């Protein structure tokens, strides 16, 4: 693990990271654990991968638990929070990382696909925020996930970008509502990141074209995103709320 914050930065805190059995989510979970937090590795279908993330955290001396919940189902979101409280005694940080993406031209978008993406990306994030408002300790942090593609106008991304536009909007709207509870809520909007999920189905030429769109001539790495998330969860970010931070190397 490559912690962005020192080992005690989140000591005594508990973080839920949704969709953290792989990719960016798993790295965020590991980074929080390396900085001292208790971490819930949430998963929907990848139990073995979630347990592997927990194993890596525990091998480094951290504390973590894998808890299953499909965030498109409100009852399961609430159960996730209840189980977290039972396991670690409280909750301080929620990272709404869980999401799905299916890119197709407008003419090929089905009602089922539209509903599925909105159920996970929008409904799941919204009701996790609602539940967090009930459970987070004072001074708690909510970090939602958007995408820099929302500012890029790529063909085939209309539904996915639309879901993330909704996430950004209620991140702004909820900031003043949650402020009296001493909770902050912000979003990060990554650009293309060097993960298995991003690279799947893309040719070298496609990847090279995307790389050429940012300022540094490379794909983002998971550590580039985890640093921004941990910052927004930290005490240093206590005066930041209702914002979306594009973490994309100048992609847009």
What does this protein structure show overall?
- By secondary structure, this protein is α/β, with parallel strands linked by helices.
- The chain has one domain: Rossmann fold (3-Layer(aba) Sandwich).
- It has helices at 23-34, 47-59, 74-88, 111-135, 158-178, 196-199, 204-211, 222-233, and strands spanning 14-17, 38-43, 63-68, 91-96, 136-145, 184-190, 244-247.
- The chain has a seven-stranded parallel beta sheet with strand order 3-2-1-4-5-6-7, sandwiched between helices.
- Helix 1 (23-34) runs parallel beside helix 2 (47-59).
- The mean pLDDT is 94.
The whole-angstrom Rg is: 17 Å
CATH topology: Rossmann fold
- Strand line-up across the major sheet: 3-2-1-4-5-6-7
Strand content: 15-25%
* Total tally of structural domains: 1
User: What is the H level of CATH, i.e. the homologous superfamily?
Assistant: NAD(P)-binding Rossmann-like Domain
Largest sheet: 7 strands, parallel
The counted number of beta strands is: 7
Which ranges are low-confidence, i.e. pLDDT below 50, for 5 or more consecutive residues?
none
Seen as an oligomer or otherwise, the chain set is single chain
**SS summary, helix count:** 8
Order of helices and strands: EHEHEHEHEHEHHHE
Would you tell me the structural class of the helices and strands?
Answer: alpha/beta
Short description:
By secondary structure, the chain is α/β, with parallel strands linked by helices. It has 8 helices and 7 strands, in the order βαβαβαβαβαβαααβ. Helix 1 (23-34) packs across helix 8, helix 3 (74-88) runs parallel beside helix 4 (111-135) and helix 4 (111-135) runs parallel beside helix 5.
């Amino acid at each position: 693990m490559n912690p962005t914050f020192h080992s005690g930065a989140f000591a005594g805190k508990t973080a839920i990271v949704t969709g953290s059995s792989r990719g960016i989510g798993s790295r965020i979970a590991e980074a929080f654990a390396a900085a001292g937090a208790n971490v819930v590795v949430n998963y929907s279908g990848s139990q073995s991968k979630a347990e592997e993330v927990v194993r890596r955290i525990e091998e480094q001396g951290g504390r973590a638990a894998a808890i299953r919940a499909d965030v498109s189902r409100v009852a399961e979101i609430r159960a996730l929070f209840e189980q977290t409280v039972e396991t670690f005694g409280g909750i301080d940080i929620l990272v709404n990382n869980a999401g799905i993406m299916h890119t197709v031209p407008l003419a090929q978008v089905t009602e089922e696909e539209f509903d599925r993406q909105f159920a996970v990306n929008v409904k799941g994030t919204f009701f996790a925020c609602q539940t967090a408002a009930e459970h987070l300790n004072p001074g708690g942090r909510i970090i939602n996930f958007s995408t820099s593609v929302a500012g890029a106008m790529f063909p085939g991304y209309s539904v996915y970008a639309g879901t993330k536009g909704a996430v950004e909007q209620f991140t702004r709207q909820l900031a003043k509502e949650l402020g009296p509870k001493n909770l902050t809520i912000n979003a990060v909007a990554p650009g293309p990141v060097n993960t298995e999920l991003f690279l799947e189905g893309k040719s070298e030429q496609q990847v090279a074209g995307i790389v050429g769109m940012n300022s540094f001539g490379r794909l983002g790495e998971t550590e580039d995103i985890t640093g921004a998330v941990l910052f927004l969860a930290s005490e240093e970010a206590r005066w930041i709320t209702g914002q979306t931070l594009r973490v994309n190397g100048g992609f847009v």
